[in-house]
Every structure is written in C-alpha cells, then in structure tokens.
Amino acid sequence: MRRRFFQLDVFGTAEGYGNGLAVVVGAEGLSTPGMQAFADWTQLAETAFLVDGEGEADYAVRIFTPAVELPFAGHPTLGSAMAWLAAGHVPKVPGRLIQSCAVGLVEIDLTGDVPTFVAPPTRIEAVDAPALARELGLDPGRVRAAHRLNNGPDWTAVEMESGADVAAVRIEDLRMPRGMGLGLWGAEAAGTADFRVRMIDQRPPPVEDPVTGSLNAALGCLLAGQGRLDAPLVMAQGASVGRAGRVHLSARNGRVRVGGAVRVLIEGEVDL
Question: Which catalytic residues are annotated (predicted)?
C-alpha cells in the first residue's frame, strides 16, 4: 500500500546538521513487526508512524529505533508534527497540535519561530554524584551533580563543571552498564549556547546521538525545578559527532517547552 513518506532534519542549524527522522503518514493497518522492520531498514535514529487521532488528538504516533519501540522521543515529536502538516492536514485548533503517544497527550505550539512541544512530566531523583562518576570512569572533581530522570525514557544525567569538560569525555573511556542512556551536560563559557549536551547510549557498543529532544526536555524540567529556567536557554548538542544541533528551552505558565528547527528534506511515497 502506498503511504506518504518524509525524511526530516530536526534541531539542526542547517540541513543535515540535526537528527534525522523518517515519518510514515497514514500508517493504519501496519503491524508492530512491520513497523519495527521498516525502522531497522531506514537505520535512522528513529522512525515514526502516524495514524488518525481520537478525541482532541490530531494524530497518534508510534516511535521506533532500529531495535526497539520508544514510549516518547523529542525529535520525532517535532518532526512528526511538521510531516503531518506537510501531508496536507489541518490542526483541530489553529496554531496548536495535540499528539497522542505512549506517554499520553503532548501539545505542540506552532505559533513561534520554531515549533515547540510541552515537556511531559519528568520524574527526578538525585544520586550520589562522586560515586556515579567513579562508576562511570569520570573525574569526580569535574562533576557538579547527577540525577536519574524519566520522561518515558530513562536518563542518567551528569552535570559537568563546564561544557569543555563535556566535550573532553572520551566514549571509549566510559564504563557504562548495558542499556544506560547517559546524558552529559555543562555550562558553556561563551558562544551561542548556554549548555553543551551529549547523549551516549550503551547498546552496546556505546553510540552517541546527534541531538536528543527527550533528554533535553528532561533537563529542562530539572532546570525549571532548580529555578534555573527563568529565561530561555539554548542547548548545543552534536559537535562530537559532526553535527550542530540547537534545542531551545523555556518555561511558561509552569510548563517547560522544548523547541527547534525542523526541515523536510525528502518527501514522497513508500510502499508498505
């Protein structure tokens, strides 16, 4: 069956500098094994499958990596929204989309310079930073704090003393348990971003993600809870893997918003 198909670049400062996403619009009738097999074929970080929404939801999405289905992910949320619009659909409420996914309903604001989604609720737990640093093979003297975060995916977030410390970490030196999603982040001294972020997924082997919307969303909730998101922030991610991602964080009316540029690079049909 012929279905609308898009490939997009999300969070990049230019085409090809963000995180790639495949989106199938009109995925009704596809089986879970079929979706997983196609996601494995694309070999992109994630592939999203959209079907008509129910109730207030404009559409529903299922998100797959090449190996597993995810309950939520950030760059597929923004990319799916823009692919759904590019396919000719019209929001139920002008300027706003409601996405249904495994973590519930996610609101996407279309009225700004870039689309933004409201970060889902995030569970935050502080952990012993020096002990975790030693476990991971990091220098405890360069670690400020550490938290376990969950907003669908589980994250181990380690705040380093600086963005330079984040950049200096060598993946091959880390001692990560299987399945850990490690977020390293630290304040930048200067430049166009406030923080540098890296996300390393221990599959194994460890793989670094170009730009990770859901991790940045969780960090936004952490920052907001600490009173550190009083003004909009820009998170830079991807330099370690040759990308230039920018994630925009802000808080309004008690809700954290996560935004970034989305570009449709390929549009057509796929036979699935």
Answer: 46
